[in-house]
Amino acid sequence: MRRRKHVKVITVADKAQPLQLDCGGVLPEIQVAYETYGHLSQTGDNVILVVHALTGDSHPAAHDQADDIGWWEPLVGPGCPIDTNVFYVVCSNVLGGCQGTTGPASINPETGQPYGAHFPQITIRDMVHVQKRLLDKLGIEQLVLVIGGSMGGMQALEWAVTYPDMMDGVAVIAAPGYTTPQAIAYNIVGRRAVMLDPDWQEGNYYGTAGPAEGLAIARALGMITYQSDYSMTEKFGRNLRNDKFEVENYLEYQGNSLVKRFDANAYLYLLKALDLHDLGRGYSSYQAALARVKAKVLVVGVSSDILYPPYQQQQLVRELKAAGARASYNEIDSGHGHDGFLIDFPILRPMIDRFIRSILPTPALLNHHSLFRPSDLAYLGARLVTEI
Amino acid sequence: MRRRKHVKVITVADKAQPLQLDCGGVLPEIQVAYETYGHLSQTGDNVILVVHALTGDSHPAAHDQADDIGWWEPLVGPGCPIDTNVFYVVCSNVLGGCQGTTGPASINPETGQPYGAHFPQITIRDMVHVQKRLLDKLGIEQLVLVIGGSMGGMQALEWAVTYPDMMDGVAVIAAPGYTTPQAIAYNIVGRRAVMLDPDWQEGNYYGTAGPAEGLAIARALGMITYQSDYSMTEKFGRNLRNDKFEVENYLEYQGNSLVKRFDANAYLYLLKALDLHDLGRGYSSYQAALARVKAKVLVVGVSSDILYPPYQQQQLVRELKAAGARASYNEIDSGHGHDGFLIDFPILRPMIDRFIRSILPTPALLNHHSLFRPSDLAYLGARLVTEI
């Protein structure tokens, strides 16, 4: 794939420095696949860490015109809110994933075989620890912003709690401070479907077809929760094609598409990481965890999100404020459901743009920022006016 | 089971009178399991048909103190809104079910083997046609009311459209005029889970264990859609038991419970019947179907229903009114989700009570109603006063 061209891989854990995991396991070797955009400033003060959602990867945007488009193209690039003419953007595939970073499909150095179901359970916090090691390797000590949607939003929140001194801002889109039982329940059903597939073979399916139908079913269920009754009715109604409801054709297509690009065991582990997400984990209380946050936090909800409904984001902001953090809530008023964070760019762009400018140094400081070109300043200035 | 004691079985289709099905198939033999409560009046003017939901049966209430309780106990019985001292209540297991009425587990008279996946596809309308044949056999020509929730509500609506002259009222709880793609999508996922189970064996599992895990997964998904984020959070939170989230224990319990009492093929066929539900099916338009309705219609939604959200019931009432029908909307303001129709009896009882009284003959007629006892009249009178 063309998109692989810009992917770099780096080792962040080895026998000398294994990673102790949140649930008690150990990973003796971790490789991280990542991409970077733009240029690191001399003082290292222009870094934005973009973190991806469940089935995402290290490729939020194309690197050039010949490159495949990314999953957050309208947000990341020259002249975008996450302006790669200004910022040095880092995005890595998550721990437990299957797009280059160590996960269940990786070879277990102790057995020489893929981990499969013997991969240790990982959490959102483990993903963040791995990203921290990646930044250490890259010589990055400070972040302007950590930003992500859905599972990416959970990581952004964990960043704010785990490394509170490292970033100015955190932007969390369509993600809760902890996962509620309804969202867990959907994941349980998805996992059971994968594991019911006889081709799953207790996770030892590498070299064989693998649990294609089980994973496709899990994905189909995911797709329902990412959309809304409204958006599905708009798109599919009760229309038929090939003697099937359009929605059935769609779900089959989406399921099969994921099967081609995603490892079923990785899907199982990442779903479980979503279930385990709870910022309060390991702290004396949830409130105590939130009280650690020093970054300015923007929390964005999507009005029609049925997976992590907006009341959860509103609640998170109230809880952050109660814990003394600077937090604000923006809502994407959209029928797209949870997927709004990957669709509603005309609404998301100004929200993110405004937030980034609110955490940047003052305009005076902007002027001496070596990476701001005059055109960028004019661009930012013009939009700042509209903010008044 | 004790509850079987009061179940009667009657043949409503045979070689001489097979049932032509809505989707083109034919059933050469149909038996219906049903129960009755109360006494049929001499003029046959006191019949209420109660229709059940997906996994329900012919047993909405206990017949006596020794009997098992039913699924609508607080609504059906002496002194209840569906007062068995007053009304003759009929409830039958649906066509395609597995509680005594012909379904996929029944013996195909042409092969001597269970139908399995060779059972013809059935619709909600077919269920209604079978119920009509049952009433014919029982000598019932007129209904005071047809009432049901969820799939039962769909049947009640089909009754109003298919046999518009037969009833005074129809009460529809938590059911739409047609199924929307999100609800269809959940059913698709459920069916695929059942069929993925190797023990499903293309539906030929009779005499073997059957697709227990597949059906349990489908049921688990159903249970999510019957509840709400709120009710699940209230019940389970993120509590753990036996190293599992409580919600996982709960879903496993619910799945396993259904497996013990329900046939997987019946589940597949009934889910598909839900998908095919569309009152406009076979008519020149949806509006044309609604214009056939002569009964007074009460439509009840549950505020937190995510399966058939209340806007669908509100829309149905608007559409019924636009088609010239007498329709009204009541909402159960509850966090219980779709299951509210089986839980929120303190709200549902007065709604149903009021509606039944609104469709009954005038008080003058009530007096000569042979089955009204003085105490019932006093009871009704007292409550009528509260209506003013």
Short overview:
The structure is a homodimer of 388-residue chains. Chain A has 388 residues and is an alpha/beta fold.
- Fraction of helical residues of chain A: 25-40%
- Mean pLDDT across all residues of chain A, rounded? 93
Indicate the multimeric state: homodimer
**Strand content range of chain A:** 15-25%
Give the C-alpha Rg of chain A.
Answer: 21 Å
Helical/strand content category of chain A: alpha/beta
Strand tally of chain A: 16
> Which chains have the largest interface?
A-B, 42 and 42 residues
Commentary on this structure:
Two copies of one chain form a homodimer. Chain A is of the alpha/beta class and 388 residues long. Chain A is 38% helix and 18% strand. The first copy, chain A, contains twelve helices and 16 strands. In chain A, strands 1-4-8-5-11-12-15-16 form an eight-stranded mixed β-sheet, with helices on both faces. In chain A, helix 3 runs antiparallel to helix 4 (212-226), helix 3 runs antiparallel to helix 7 (264-276) and helix 4 (212-226) crosses helix 6. Chain A is globular, with a radius of gyration of 21 Å. The interface between A and B is large, with 42 and 42 residues.
